[in-house]
Amino acid sequence: MTWALVFLALIMALVVGYLLSQTINRKPWLANDPLENLPSGMPQSISPSKLGLGVLLAVITSMFGLFFSAYVQRMELNDWSRVQEPSILWVNTVVLVLASVAMNQALRGARRDDVLATRRALIAAGLLSFVFLAGQLLAWDQLRDAGFYMRGNPAAAFFYLLTAIHGFHLIGGLWVWGRTSSRLRGAENVGEFRLSVELCTVYWHFMLLVWLFLFALLLNT
Amino acid sequence: MAYVAIADRDDPHAMHHPKSFVTRYIWSQDHKVIAIQYSLIAIAVGLVALVLSGMMRLQLGFPDTFSFIDPADYYQFITMHGMIMVIYLLTALLLGGFGNYLIPLMVGARDMVFPYMNMLSVWVYLLAVIVLMASFFVPGGPTGAGWTLYPPQAISEGTPGASWGIILMLLSLAIFIVAFTMGGLNYVTTVLQARCRGMTLMRMPLSVWGIFMATVLGLLAFPALFVSAVMMALDSLIGTSFFMPAIVSLGETSSHEGGSPILFQHLFWFFGHPEVYIVALPAFGIVSDLLSTHARKNIFGYRMMVWAIIAIGGLSFVVWAHHMYVSGMNPYFGFFFATTTLIIAVPTAIKVYNWILTLWRGDIHLTVPMLFSIGFIFTFIHGGLTGLFLGNVVVDVPLSDTYFVVGHFHMVMGVSPILVIFGAIYHWYPKITGKMYNDFLGKAHFWLTLLGTYSIYLPMHYLGILGVPRRYFAMGTTDFIPESAQAMNAGITISAIIVAVVQVIFIVNMIWSYFKGKDAGGNPWRATTLEWQTPQTPPEHGNWGEKLPVVYRWAYDYSVPGAKEDFIPQNEPPEPGVVAGREHGVEHT
């Protein structure tokens, strides 16, 4: 559970730190604070959607952190035997990195208000993500051909489970991606879609990060 | 200072007001309607769990009398009673119900930040409830694994509902977690982003603080339940061995091998202990507001109350293994968890002292909400103190599997939050419906419930010290359980049935008052918080009419010297000559 605890300690430190910074010197029972000094919500620069996504990512991180700590705990038992990871995973990793890079290009295009560049890069990112998912399925195939099933081998069971959970989260992202890119098709300027592109980019970088952690964990155990 | 657009958006026409009955009351995106939907579903499913507990008590009080309860039924009743009460009633009612109703009104927002997702949340919650209820009608019935669902027995042959019931339970929990996450994103974002002008974090009523922190805990802790549910479902359906060890049963070896049931326990309680505070923190917050309002006095030590909520939230993640002392662990581990468990009692005790000091020399009005709040202080102190017993390894080991634990946790997280929920329903009923409830029926409900629950759970501590084991279908004849213990069990059952029947008074009162009650007016309790200052009662869609409120003071300006009345609403501008606050004349310069 150490992983989960380290992660939670970090999150809780963030939450507690923020709350303390907001509350430490306040004397709310005094009504003479001039109104100008009293903020309402967070500063304008963070939109509610961004904060919402941030909270969602914290929840997803908590889930993966707990999966990882379950993995590490289960590893310590006697019947653990290593799985030979399919080499195609390296290719998949490169593809997912490229998807993330393309997302970044889309974001840059959106910031320049260049609809065409944004759409191209966005579509490239989505297609690369589909290629990544197909690659993951191939990896499953190879692993099964090598004789590793969910039954009988806990390492293989974790492999299938964790890649599946990661894949499902990517598919969830692709649903939002599909909505954003189809609405962008007829758009004259990026304007109102910039936020969507930005949220997609953050999510893709995050999914890449999760995959890199997951891949490193799978390779080393 | 830059302000958030939504927090300062005055124009209500930007919101699309619903036109038809369906969009107004069924597919509604209004946080108040969603809150009522959440509450009604939660109360309905809670009544099912209440009936189940009655059936269990019948068996325990009068064994060999009721032929329609066999051991398998009994375990199914235990399991479903526990899970429904903890998750589908308390969590859903306190966060989905009160969270939804109170957050936007108390922080001065028009609605939640993501209303559509809020609507999805309640319907997905209903789906989770339907899936759970469906397990009563599948072959084998619902799972009888106990509410903790420990493997291996949860998915081993011989346990009731080991094939269908457990899968539906896990599925329902996973769906519930999705629903909760959608709601939780809303609560956190709304508190952080949509507060009206002047509403600093330190001016929020403690109800909002409690609900906010509980939501943070829920968002981080529910994934642990999700993870364990997914892995257990795979163990059961596909035959993996995440949790399932090799088992030899009746000479046959199972197909599982090498899994760790203890791993499940860690994951489960990593969720399970924060869950206690997910239920407790909103109750703490709400009861603080009720006490302050009905004692006409500011809450004692507001800042300490806020920091205690934050501290309890942080600490609640490092105490989980105190539920696992009897599973066996490294003694240093046990020492660590016993220490953290005792440390968490410190902020909790601060809260209890502050409630009592709020009452001290207050102008106490013994209204129905106040009675329930004072009742809560009693039951919570009681349950909290027995918690200190059980937090110590050497005391816990002999008591862990006895009725002492049943008495403890029902006192601390059954009766206590339920008393707050009743108090809160009576307190906000005039705002929700515009009508006043019947005071006599409310008081009768309080006294019968408080005395009734005490006569259920107090004797259980004694049974536990005698060594009467919990979870047993029937005690049989043993040397260490005297005849008198059986008499006590019968008495407990009679009390339990009386308490269950008494709840009819509450339901009748709520329904009758809705149609025939006296008009309550906008602010019957003369309270300071924003929800009592809405232009309409009940508040209409958008809450505030044309202009959003502006907040000038904290939520606890009661009995301010020199003020016209004994309360000053949060949105009332400062008046020259009246110095608000506890330490006026000292700190005011």
Characterize the structure shown.
The complex is a heterodimer of chains A (221) and B (589). Chain A has 221 residues and is mainly α. Chain A is 75% helix and 0% strand. Chain A contains six helices and no strands. In chain A, α2 runs parallel beside α6 (194-220), α3 (88-112) runs antiparallel to α4 and α4 (115-145) packs antiparallel against α5. Chain A is flat. Chain B is mostly helical and 589 residues long. Among the domains of chain B are: 28-204, no CATH class; 521-584, no CATH class. Helix content of chain B is 60%, strand content 1%. Chain B is built from 14 helices and two strands, in the order ααααααββαααααααα. A two-stranded antiparallel ribbon of chain B has the order 1-2. Chain B is globular, with a radius of gyration of 24 Å. At the A-B interface, α1, α2 and α5 of A face α5, α6, α7 and α8 of B.
Largest sheet of chain B: 2 strands, antiparallel
Number of strands of chain A: 0
In N-to-C order, the SSE pattern of chain B is HHHHHHEEHHHHHHHH
Percentage of helical residues of chain A?
over 70%
CATH architecture label name of chain A: Up-down Bundle
Summarize the structure.
The complex is a heterodimer of chains A (221) and B (589). Chain A has 221 residues and is mainly α.
Task: Spell out the blueprint of helices and strands.
The complex is a heterodimer of chains A (221) and B (589).
Chain A: H1 2-23, H2 48-75, H3 88-112, H4 115-145, H5 154-185, H6 194-220
Chain B: H1 21-26, H2 31-61, H3 71-107, H4 115-134, H5 165-193, H6 206-237, E1 248-249, E2 252-253, H7 261-294, H8 302-315, H9 331-359, H10 368-391, H11 393-399, H12 403-433, H13 439-466, H14 483-516
Antiparallel strand pairs in B: 1-2
Helix pairs in contact in B: 2-3, 2-4, 2-14, 3-5, 3-6, 3-7, 3-12, 4-5, 5-6, 6-7, 6-8, 7-9, 7-10, 7-12, 8-9, 9-10, 10-12, 10-13, 12-13, 13-14
Features:
heterodimer; A: 221 residues; mainly alpha; Four Helix Bundle (Hemerythrin (Met), subunit A); flat; B: 589 residues; 2 strands; 1% strand; disordered N terminus; disordered C terminus
